[in-house]
Design goal:
Elements: H1 2-10, E1 18-22, H2 27-35, E2 39-43, H3 47-57, E3 61-62
Parallel strand pairs: 1-2, 1-3
């Protein structure tokens, strides 16, 4: 996810400069995104919650979601 997010950010295509993740994401992901200055929005576990947050925030990239 970090590689995808950084690539999209470099191309100016990471909508809202944000990645939506679940609370199950590991600390390494969060640290790498912080270093890359990419925002993280966390949700409960489940595609439903991730999709809701994508729609709510306007973000386009998410961990663990068919809407990615």
């Amino acid at each position: 996810m970090v590689i995808c997010a950084k690539h999209l950010k470099a191309k100016g295509r990471l909508r809202k400069n944000t990645l939506v993740t679940t609370v199950m994401s590991n600390i390494g992901l969060h640290k790498a995104l912080e270093e890359a200055e990419i925002n993280v929005v966390e949700t409960k576990v489940g595609d439903r919650y991730v999709l809701e947050k994508l729609l709510e925030t306007g973000a386009r990239l998410a961990e663990n979601s068919p809407a990615t």
